[in-house]
Structure to design on (482 residues):
């Protein structure tokens, strides 16, 4: 594997509503898909409540560890939206209304014929040193500070922000993946599969059991970053089960 | 709020397949719902890859912090199933085939007319000091060691194990919740809502925006553990928006 160009990411999902079960998260899967596609390896996800100390601790743990940190949630106009303040605290910088964000929101409000109220203006408050991450849907931007990208929790808006920031991200070798579906339980192929893993240590081999029509089934998934590993050798010596 | 009887939980989702996007997690939402219903507060979720050091570090961080830790994934028979070994390492105990798990699996195999192969027997390996967590679906049990409950990743089997362990859990005051749906953007109610939060600091008030048919909508959610807080005062002075 090409360790030298491995680009990693942590994801921080912020919100009481995910932890209470009220809202079922859809962003983890969408972000995982997107990052895998562009060659960034999602290496850890954390979900934390709307508590400043929790957000600060998680952001600081993740940003020290991964190339990028993405966050979702908590950037709206209400009192429980504390992500921007928490990020500022994590970086030890001040937070205030950002003139660029204000101008962007003023223009968006004008276009919609709505007023840029103090509540809306709260969404223009950004930690010092942030860059805007625009989106095509709502009036308020996300932002990026250093390696931390702060996005909305609403899936459509999150996706728009993720698309907007993508051209500015460095990416690594894409993970290639091949799936071999089997109509038998894992236990029947475990030994053979382990032998193959030993033979090809650079290919990450995972076995994913499920129930199909109540019967045990298994997907074998072979993953690596180097296309050469998937060449003739795979055709010759892939698992025969 | 009755802090003294607050029972908390951390959830650790183990699996490369969630981080790659290949599998979309359904367990976080299901476990969140279940724990909220029985009066346990899910306080943090982490998703980590199939890497022993990552699992050990996350389990140890979470078990020191919360009343319970639930884990999902990585307890099957294949080489990439390293959860049981990682839990043993986290607790600093040995791991071996557990006679109770072996007997349980032997009986299940006999009933199905299948052999208890070495691969299947791998699923009977439990950290020393574990108790079994049975399930009604597959032949292999989950287990519990101290405050850590280790469950399967397949949602149906996970749910069966969660049901099995539930009578043995201590639970706290249930979180009561009331939702007020609004057909307007958050920014229009932010100030009024913040004023209500100030007036009732013991009620956690959250505002959850969404797009309904492309138009901004907001759910206000009021949560507390004490039914008295939701009495006449709420009817008299709940948000009028």
């Amino acid at each position: 594997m090409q360790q030298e160009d491995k680009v990693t990411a942590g994801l921080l999902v912020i919100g009481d509503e995910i932890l209470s079960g009220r809202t079922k998260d859809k962003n983890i899967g969408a972000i995982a898909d997107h990052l895998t596609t562009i060659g960034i390896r999602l290496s850890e996800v954390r979900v934390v409540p709307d508590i400043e100390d929790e957000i600060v601790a998680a952001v600081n743990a993740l940003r020290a560890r991964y190339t990028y940190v993405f966050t979702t949630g908590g950037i709206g106009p209400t009192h429980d939206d504390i992500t921007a303040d928490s990020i500022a605290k994590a970086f030890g910088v001040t937070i205030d209304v950002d003139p660029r964000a204000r101008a962007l929101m003023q223009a968006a409000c004008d276009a919609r014929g709505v007023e840029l109220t103090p509540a809306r203006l709260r969404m223009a408050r950004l930690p010092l040193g942030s860059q805007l991450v625009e989106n095509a849907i709502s009036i308020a931007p996300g932002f990026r500070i250093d390696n931390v990208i702060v996005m909305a929790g609403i899936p459509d808006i999150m996706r728009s922000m993720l698309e907007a920031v993508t051209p500015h991200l460095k990416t690594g070798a894409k993970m290639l993946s091949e799936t071999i579906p089997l109509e038998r339980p894992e236990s029947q192929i475990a030994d053979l599969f382990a032998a193959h893993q030993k033979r090809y240590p650079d290919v990450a081999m995972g076995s994913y059991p499920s129930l199909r029509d109540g019967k045990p089934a298994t997907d074998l998934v072979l993953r690596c970053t180097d296309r050469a590993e998937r060449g003739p050798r795979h055709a010759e010596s892939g698992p025969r089960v």
